Amino acid sequence: MTLLAFLGIGLAHLLAAISPGPSFVLSVRTAATEGFGAAVALAAGFGLGATVWALAAITGLSILFEIAPLLFTGIKVAGGLFLIWIAISMWRHAPEPLPDMEVTTPRSPLSAFRLGLATFLVNPKPAVFFGAVFVGLVPGDAPLWAKAVVLLNIFWVETAWYVLVARVFSLPRARAAYGRVKTAADRTLGVALGALGARLALP
């Protein structure tokens, strides 16, 4: 694998990680209502969950494409269209305000970690995303060390992003500030993700 491929995977994953979704909303709510510590544990659960899906995609797809190489193009196009669909959804829902935070009983770090891991493992969308990205950027014959680097990068990027979210939204005025720029920020990210989807879908 080339450095450009590693950077491409990292950028694709970063754009996906920072795009608003259930994990983001849960992270914001946990940070705002239960504090920074619980939200950091939640972030670690997200990171492990993303890594598990990535591991499943990187091992399963490499074998699958050896058996049926014609699926390479089909899944690549489908994955690109899926990313474009997410981008369109982000654009359409950008004007919607963040949900109101509810006061909850603070949970233990272990409980928060389990919640983060379960949130990712029950959501099949990460598997589709990683499959789409790996089809275009991870060769089936990539060495084991390269795949390990990809997985490690996915873990720390996912975790680090949600640790940052936890830090920001554990501050009193942060949520109101994000709400004021949410439409522009979400639509900017949607355009970037849509461009990536088009790149994967086109020959």
Q: Which regions are unreliable across 5 or more consecutive residues at pLDDT < 50?
A: none
- In angstroms, what separates the terminal alpha carbons? 20 Å
The secondary-structure class comes to mainly alpha
Number of helices: 8
Number of domains: 1
Encode the helix/strand succession as letters: HHHHHHHH
Number of strands: 0
Q: Kindly state the mean pLDDT as a whole number?
A: 77
Q: Helicity, in percent?
A: over 70%
Biggest beta sheet summary: none
- Anisotropy-based shape: globular
Rg for CA atoms: 17 Å
Bin the strand percentage. under 5%
Describe the structure in your own words:
- It is a single chain.
- The protein has one domain (3-96, 107-201).
- It starts with a helix and ends with a helix.
- Helix content is 81%, strand content 0%.
- Helix 4 (71-93) runs antiparallel to helix 8.
- It is built from eight helices and no strands.
- The mean pLDDT is 77.
- It is mostly helical.
